[in-house]
């Protein structure tokens, strides 16, 4: 990284210095370290990170074929180097920058209203009709689940691809939760099924909160549970009620203000155009009237694994 004010004619010198440093202190040292314990060395591979506690990029050089488990000790050293106490996979390959992504990333960041207690980390906005797949009218909970999986991918907890609707259905059949005829159908899933799939595919446990109607969402107890979740876990929350599913990515913080919920709506069927999505409210803050007073609701709150 270089300051914005650096003249263009000096960029070549900065870039050249960066390459030389990476070759000398990255590739060279990595190969020597490998040859200390072996007669051969794997190809060094650079990965670039921008963890939330750093004000700059961090580049780590990993041997190409070495497993994440074998690199765990090195990642511990990086945590100690940056005085990081959190047990999160900031330096796994899967947390590296410049990953291929097909959807909008964290569209709520462009909203004018700021504040609240929000999701901690980036995610892909998954909604109806993406991936050349027509799930209009039945796939909202599948899309919410895909958004949650994308969050775990982008934070480095997993390198697993985002599951398709069919793969989600096959997972539930393999668990014995659904009959074989469920695969390929247009049947809905709910918060419980979302928690089953997260556990089976990612090893992520979830907390389920049930409410007899939407009015309970604004109660001090339920609002407090959501606030605590975003402060401690920071993962997106899937909510199902009636015939709809949504993703909650934030809640209001001040007790003195009206309860508000930052909603990511999977029912959008148009293109991934940020201005249109924001203008039409497909991502935005909703008040308590957003929730139906006649439908029951279930929340799926994915818990943060302890992992480096």
Based on secondary structure, the structural category is alpha+beta
Total beta-strand segments: 9
How would you sum up the global shape?
Answer: globular
Distance between the amino and carboxyl termini: 26 Å
Output the helix-strand order: HEEHEHHHEHEEEHEE
* Strand-residue proportion: 15-25%
Give the oligomeric state of the chains in this entry, treating copies of one chain as homo and distinct chains as hetero. single chain
Please summarize the sheet with the most strands. 7 strands, antiparallel
Low-confidence stretches: none
Descriptive terms for the model:
about 300 residues, alpha+beta, seven-stranded antiparallel beta sheet, 9 strands, about 30% helix
Describe the 3D structure.
30% of the residues lie in helices and 16% in strands. The chain has 308 residues and is an alpha+beta fold. Strands 3, 4, 5, 6, 7, 8 and 9 form a 7-stranded antiparallel β-sheet that branches. The chain has a two-stranded antiparallel sheet with strand order 1-2. Helix 3 (140-154) runs parallel beside helix 5. It starts with 10 loop residues before the first helix and ends in a 6-residue tail after the last strand. The model has no long low-confidence stretch (mean pLDDT 88).
